[in-house]
Amino acid sequence: MSDFIRVRALVNGRVQHVGFRYWACEQAERLGLTGTVENLPDGRVEVVFQGKPELVNEMKEKLHRGPSMAIVRQVIFYRERVKDDETFFGPVY
Predict the structure, then answer these.
(1) What is the dihedral sign for C-alpha 85, 87, 90, 93?
(2) 21, 44, 57, 79: which is the annotated catalytic residue?
């Protein structure tokens, strides 16, 4: 995991009630990433994910598009410290 990176993304736009969390889980699992996805009270979606840099970058690109019903207006990314004990990707309820 020493070569992994971790990113927190705040996704703004029409991103709630359009299947964004389910879609993000599916995309992250396909890439072999771990992390979480959560709807925020202010209408944004927060996606935290980690893995090999090239796969993290691929997920970052996907977040700019989102699922077909979403309208992504802005994505802000923050680097975070890698969590060694994280083993899956899933939603936060």
Answers:
(1) negative
(2) 21
